[in-house]
């Protein structure tokens, strides 16, 4: 399946201040997420931002907050973003068939969200260099499980160029600058 911008909605999962410092390779993850978000914005992909129990885990990290403040935010206590009825309704109202996922932790909230989205009939794309967990083994195992379940793995650079599709696309030069 080829991933097309007009078919996609992006879900950011729980990239929050009090958990983020404990996440494996968090500096690289943050850099990758910033590039992904900027690239998805160039393609006018709608965003849905999820935050797990903000009182305990805090807000979205500042470097991402400024990129996502304009989009709908949903607080949740369920691990799956689909467990929040308002959040699931927001995904459905976008009318897209493909959901791009990034966030933390891969083996808990990202995994359960992806599995629920599959059950809801969506195609799910996981950006493997834009997800992480506290332990690398948990991330790796979750990605294997997700692939076996039918989730499409990709990287932020591959995804952004797939969405661009052509060197003559109006955002090609900007995407190229982002990934260098």
From TrEMBL:
Annotated Isochorismatase-like domain residues: 9-157
A GO molecular function held by the record: hydrolase activity
Recorded superkingdom: Bacteria
InterPro entries linked: Isochorismatase-like_dom, Isochorismatase-like_sf, Isochorismatase_domain
Keywords noted in UniProt: Hydrolase
Protein name: Hydrolase
Cited CDD domains: YcaC_related
Species name: Halarcobacter anaerophilus
Presence of keyword Cell wall biogenesis/degradation: no
